[in-house]
Amino acid sequence: MTRPRITLDVFSDYVCPFCYLEAPELDALAERFGGAVAIRWRAFELRPEPEPTLDPDGDYLHDVWERAVYPMAAERGMTLRLPRLQPRSRLAHEASAWARTQDAVRPGADSAMRTALFRGFFEESLDLADPEALVHVAQTLDLDGQALREALAQGDFRQQVRADQQTARQLGIGGVPGLRFSLDGEHAGVLEGAQPRRQLFLAVERLLDAMR
């Protein structure tokens, strides 16, 4: 099987609505270009400790949602609700990294976990900082909840999450979603913010043209 020459690293956070809103656009990109592009979701914790989390009842969040989130959700045919809480997201990133290791046991575990975490938070106010809530998500996906519980308690994937964060900083990515394109392993550009699929398609088409 030919290895994709274009890689798209998606730096995202589970508390960022625009990252969730970008998911269907990235699905469309994968469908359009098939094996030509490898999409890798990477961790980016917007508010790591000790930085304070946002006030779920504050004016800032309500303004952003009314002005940008709800209109984009309607445009992309998605249902989002302003969560009742604003948890830290590191454990959710660790759970996602763990799910990636389960693909051999449960094909698609990585994608299923990512979707469940986004949907759980933005539709049901799932507490992403609660290990038992994350274990429950894993169990609903027919994954080994006890194995995830142990991995979170031991911090098995903590360094991997931190490494993703450091990579994003080195690339100059300050907001999410941060989309880093690579061609044959070489940096080929970054887009920040939720992009329409046309913009994503154009970015990939330019790289494909450069390969010819």
TrEMBL record:
Residue ranges constituting the DSBA-like thioredoxin domain according to the UniProt record: 7-196
SUPFAM superfamilies linked to this entry: Thioredoxin-like (SSF52833)
InterPro entries, A to Z: DSBA-like_thioredoxin_dom (IPR001853), Thioredoxin-like_sf (IPR036249)
Pfam families in the cross-refs: DSBA
Organism superkingdom: Bacteria
Name of the molecule in the record: DsbA family protein
